[in-house]
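At this stage, I put together a protein sequence along with its fold in token form, as given directly below:
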Amino acid sequence: MCAIAGVVGPPAADRAQRMIDTLRHRGPDGVRVETADGAALAHARLSIIDLAHGWQPLHAAGSTVVGNGEIYNYLELTEQFGLAGDLTTGSDFEPLLWLYAKEGPDAFKRLRGMYAFCLIGGDGRTWLVRDPFGIKPLYWRHDEDGAIDFASEPRALLATQAAKPAMHVDRAEELLALNYSLGEGTVFQGIRRLAPGQIVEVTAGRFSDRGRRSALPAPASPAPRDETQAIAALDRVLEDSVRVHQRSDVPYGLFLSGGIDSAAVAVLMSRLNARPVTAFTCGFHAPGARDERAQAEKVARALDLDWRETLFDEADFWRVLPKVAAALDEPTADYATLPTYKLAEAAKGTLTVVLTGEGGDELFGGYGRYRRALRPAWLGGRASEPQVDASFLSNHGQGAVERWRQATQPPAGLSALQQAQFRDIAAWLPGDLLLKLDRCLMAHGLEGRTPFLDPEVAAFAFHLPDRFKVRGRLGKWLLRRWLASVCPSADPFARKKGFTVPVETWIAPRAADLGPRIAASQGLRRLGDPDTVRAIFADERGASQRWRLLLFALWHAVHIEGSEPQDALNRLLGDV
């Protein structure tokens, strides 16, 4: 896990240096900048594999690469193609360069991992590539001198321009309506992101789209029809994924919630490690808040984990909020950013790599909206679409919903359940969950890994018959059946309660003071009615909308207006 930045076009080492300097939090172990043929490449390193020799830009077989992330199957690729005698480092990215020399861009299809990279081939071709799920980010823009700048975060691209950043209104509306933005555009005008799985060739300052790797490949063999066989196959595919996701030369552990996804990861890590695995759990101290620590502790004791708990309370909310707003230069309004940030704070210094359970719901059919999509209308069924609560927006967010429908159109031949899963994998997963994980962990120099979001797991899980995903009122049926056999303490057949953070409870005592100042936010005034915003903070019936408005006003003050995060929050609270 690292940060990358660069200029493809007229070499501009000084611009690459300014970009990478803004990303040192992602790569605290050191920075390198090089000028190559027609490009300037920069890398900030978080050392994970081959601590001594894995520095980038990396040169081999006549090609050069700067990459962010991990290629988990680098050992298998080395053996399969007989590369051991060629390699001069133990870096997981070096085999890619040798494969490119043999196969050109077809080599990209062989990668199993989370990655975003720029590769300049010995054949003179330059590539920007992102992993199929979009676990690792990559942003780009056209520079005024005809070059293309790219970086792991938008803040790096903004650091090289003299003018203040400008907000893209449609993307901001999507954030407030959906909690995230859609497509390849970003909330900053002129800055775009590579789509998940996108492979782009850069020639003379222009992009040529060379296709996209699907996050949902066809399985190598037909999906099992017998439940006993399916459980055995699930065990094999999950164990294999966790095994390769543990490849690291630095300490690793996991974030353990009270849910079954992280419990599944914990089971397999416990199986694969001789020593107790370190696990961190966050709980909440607030009336009525769902606290997962008791259930997480049951699992930790059953698996003999080295379990650490941390508490998130009202003081943490106001302390962490400006830090989260600063970390989210590409924003998501998901309140789970708050405990994720606090967990990363707690794990820093103990762990460098953290495995998490993201992706389990999307691949195995865990969300309640999936079950609603399968029911007839007379039983309360409805399409799996965003339920927008955004009365303050000029069109109440309906424009964002329509763009969501267009951006997530599933291919033909999928079941109703698979269509709902496909839509989430196309938009919600990269735009919200993975963005949250990337920014909140990288703010502390931690690498987050997601064993469920693996090509082998995806090929197996997505194509399972619907009955192995949803059974009655329960989703993730097959995963629950497997977990019951290997860790009954996880209570896998308990109904999913959903993850909540009591933000409304903490905002309410200060709502009357916040309302007028948030209504006056420059960004919000461009999107909707200030009177409606004030009313939301004055009336308890608007409590569910307050969090998004507060976060957006704070984000806008920091990333568009240029305020210091704590100063911006103090002004909104009237504490100045």
User: Anything to note?
Assistant: The longest strand covers residues 63-71. The CA atoms of residues 53 and 89 lie 6 Å apart. The chain has three domains: 2-212, 227-490, 503-573. The mean pLDDT is 94.
